[in-house]
Each structure stands twice: as C-alpha cells, then as structure tokens.
Design brief:
single chain; about 240 residues; mainly alpha; 10 helices
C-alpha cells in the first residue's frame, strides 16, 4: 500500500521552504496574482455590460460584435495568463526540488514566452477545456471529476520534458498520464483544495491583501502534491 504525505506534511514542507524566502515566493507569484484579479474583474464588468442591453435598444448585429470581441479578448487574455501562471508554477516545482535554487522570480514568469514549445501548453489547455466541457454536458459531477483527473497534466508535461522522456508523445499523452496518477487520489486532491477555504476567506476579509501570501503558499502546495504523486507512482511516467 502506498503511503502518501498527509495534507499537513505537504503544507509543512512548503512552510519550511518559505521560511526566509517569502519575498522570493511573493515576487514569483505577484504578476500571476495581479492578472488573476484583473481578469476576474474584467470578466465581471463584461458580464454587467452585456446585461445592460434591453429589448427596446437591442440590435443583434451590435450585440454579436460585442460578444465576439469580449470572447476573443477574454480568450487571448486567458492564454497570456496561462503561460505566465505555468512559468511560475514550473519554477516553483524546480524550487521544491532544490531549495537552494537561484532564480529571478520576476523573469521566471516569462520563461515559456521564450520557449519554442509555448504552443504545446496552449494546445494542451484547449484540449483539456474541450474534454472537460464535453464531460460536463453529460452531468456536472462527471465534468468536475474529470477536471480533477486532468489537474496534473501540466506538471506531467514539465516533468517528462525535463527528463527527456517525451519522444513520440502526443499532447493527449500528458492528459492520460495525469489521469493515471490521479487514480485513487482525486479525493485527496479535492480535500486538499477544501483545506484552503479558510485561507481564501481570510484573503477576502483582508480586502485581498492576504492573497499576496496565500497565493504562493497555495500554489507551492499544489506543486508539492504532484511531487508526492510522482514519488509513489513513478511507473506511470
């Protein structure tokens, strides 16, 4: 029987890494956090703007252009955020493996803008969203379960690429391996997510200021969850 680290152990390891390194962690995730907040604010404002139209002033042509424009801008924004967020996550993963790793936290946000493989991350993102959407069409719960199963895909991609083990792999292979790693671990992942609810509430209570510390703590813990999975299931990679 595989013995995984408990939630407390995963978080304890991250807290040890953060001792004396909070500045580096905050700078690593400051841009992703800002973009996350702005993106959500943008989406909310767009939603409010869309619903301001009433039946007396409704014009299908204008409405279609607005919806299309918002959709395109939102999609492009999500791709930029994706690359920045994954660049930070991948650096965090490296940092967990080497606590003495020397890196520039701000520049690390843009690592995959300089990588020739940036397009692979975008295509994986699109495929995951299509798969999740199709499963959600059946029922909400299966969509959520599948989404959790896909949750380790990007770390799998990063890990295998670092090891030079990607020859002949299709983009869906990373998704498949994520599902294999998550077999029997979906509930652990779900509960780990739930364990941060108190922190998210604290972040809201502090008018978002608390997220400056909560966000990197959360992200590093998720990366540590993957490290634990791989250590106990190396045969899947």
């Amino acid at each position: 029987m595989k013995t995984y680290r408990t939630r407390a152990e995963l978080k304890y390891e991250v807290k040890n890494l953060l001792k004396g390194n909070w500045k580096k962690a905050i700078l690593l995730y400051l841009i992703p956090l800002i973009i996350f907040v702005l993106t959500n604010g943008y989406n909310n404002s767009n939603s409010r703007a869309t619903f301001r139209y009433n039946t007396s002033s409704f014009d299908i042509g204008t409405f279609s252009k607005i919806v299309t424009t918002f959709g395109i801008i939102g999609f492009i924004t999500s791709l930029i955020f994706l690359l920045i967020n994954l660049s930070a996550n991948f650096r965090a993963f490296d940092w967990l493996g080497d606590h003495d790793l020397d890196f520039d936290p701000i520049k690390s946000n843009f690592t995959y803008f300089r990588s020739p493989d940036w397009w692979k991350l975008i295509f994986i993102y699109v495929i995951i969203n299509i798969f999740t959407f199709l499963w959600t069409l059946l029922l909400i719960i299966p969509g959520i379960v599948k989404g959790i199963g896909y949750s380790q895909t990007y770390f799998v991609y990063k890990d295998l690429n670092d090891r030079g083990l990607t020859d002949g792999y299709s983009l869906t292979t990373y998704i498949t391996k994520s599902q294999q790693l998550m077999m029997g671990n979906k509930w652990r992942y779900f509960v780990l997510q739930l364990s941060f609810i108190g922190w998210w509430i604290l972040g809201v209570i502090t008018l978002g200021i608390g997220f400056i510390w909560i966000f990197p703590y959360y992200k590093l813990t998720m990366a540590n969850f993957y490290r634990d999975l791989v250590e106990k299931n190396s045969t899947y990679l």
